[in-house]
Hints:
Strand content: 15-25%
Number of helices: 5
CATH superfamily: Class I glutamine amidotransferase (GATase) domain
Oligomer: single chain
CATH architecture: 3-Layer(aba) Sandwich
Number of strands: 8
Number of domains: 1
Amino acid sequence: xxxxxxxxxxxxxxxxxxxxxxxxxxxxxxxxxxxxxxxxxxxxxxxxxxxxxxxxxxxxxxxxxxxxxxxxxxxxxxxxxxxxxxxxxxxxxxxxxxxxxxxxxxxxxxxxxxxxxxxxxxxxxxxxxxxxxxxxxxxxxxxxxxxxxxxxx
Length: 153
């Protein structure tokens, strides 16, 4: 059901903000693939599965691609993020592009081209809201996109 819902939202041009597992669902729904277990498939990767740490624990840094929507929202090229996942994007769906990676090259953010708001992050911005205004801007950008009038087809 989640895959069908993700495809429908994307095809209908609805604003999408996908967080953690939802990034993975969106990527697979649009034709991408996943590493099923980072630790076993990419043993040299930095720690991404920090389930035993407090939710706002900053696990690693990401490098944000210039001239992406994520770079525009955050206003930086590098930042520390929390991390609570054991799966990761392997092959990116053709309708998406990479907007951030961890130092080990694991994809940490994807976005869609075109006028629709399609942004997916592997980290948990909802757990960083109190101490990071950039996360507030991320959610504010999504709310703005969702509030914009849309043509009814």
